[in-house]
Please model this.
Amino acid sequence: MTNITVGTKLPELTLPPISRFTLALYAGASGDHNPIHIDSDFAKKAGMPDVFAHGMLSMAYLGRLLTNWQPQSQLRKFSNKFAAITQLKDVITCSGEVVELITHNDEQCARVAIQACKQDGTQSLIGEAIVAL
Amino acid sequence: MLDKTKIGHQFDSFKVDVEKGRLKFFAKSIGETNPIYIDEEAAIAAGYKALPAPPTFPFSLDMEGPELLPVIGLLNLDIGRVLHGTQEFNYFGQIHAGDTITVSSKLKNIFDKKGGALEFVVMENSYTNQDGELMAQASVTLVYRNV
Model:
C-alpha cells in the first residue's frame, strides 16, 4: 500500500434515494426503533416535515466507503458530526480523501477526511477516519 | 435544563449475542454488496473467523439493552426532540458473529449552547467480548432541542 499518499481519493459511493422502505428496513436491522424515522404521524407531531433518515444509516454508508477502499481490519478510528438532516428522497454520495500520513499508536496510518453529501451539495455528515497502512 | 447531577452515571451493563442472521439483515439494510459481510465462506476466505460486524454495528448493540437508549429515562427526555450530534468509534479488535459482547455505558457530560436552546448529552460506551477483550469504544453526543 505504498501508493497511498496525501491527496489519494477514495472511490465514491452513491446510494439510491432514501425511501420509507430504506428507513423501515434500517430501523428493523439496526435496532434503532425511534419512531421519528418510521412513523410520519409521530415525526409531524414532533415538528418535523416528515420522517427522516437515521444519522447512523448515513454513517453506515460512510463505513461502506471505507471498507470498500481498505479492509475493515485496518480501520482504527471512525468519527463524524451529523451536520444536516437527510430527508426522504435525498440522494447521498460518500467521498473521502487522505489528508495526512500520521503515526497513531506506533502504527503508520492515513488520516482520511470523509463526508456524505446530498444531491444539492449540502454536507450531511462530516467526518474522519484513521486507517492503518 | 437537563439534570447535570447525573453526569458520571454508569448504566447497568448488558450482554448481547451477535447473531449471524442479524448481521446479514444489517448488511442488507445498508445496501452492503461486499460478500465478506453477507457470505460466511467469503468472510472466512478473507481471514475473518466468522461474519464480521460492520464498523457502525456497535451502535446497534447499544439498542439491545433492556430499554432503548436508557439515557432517555434517566434524563426524562422527550425522544421526539433528540437528535444525534456526533458519533466516534475507536477500534481495538473485530466483532464477529458468534461473539457475546458486553456493552457498558457512562453519561460523560451535559452542556448547553445558544442560551440553553440546545443541550448536549455525551455518552461513552465500551464493547468487550466473551474473552474480556475490549473490541471498541464509542463516544456519542446527543442534541436535545428545547425549541
Summary: The CA atoms of residues 76 and 105 of chain A lie 10 Å apart.
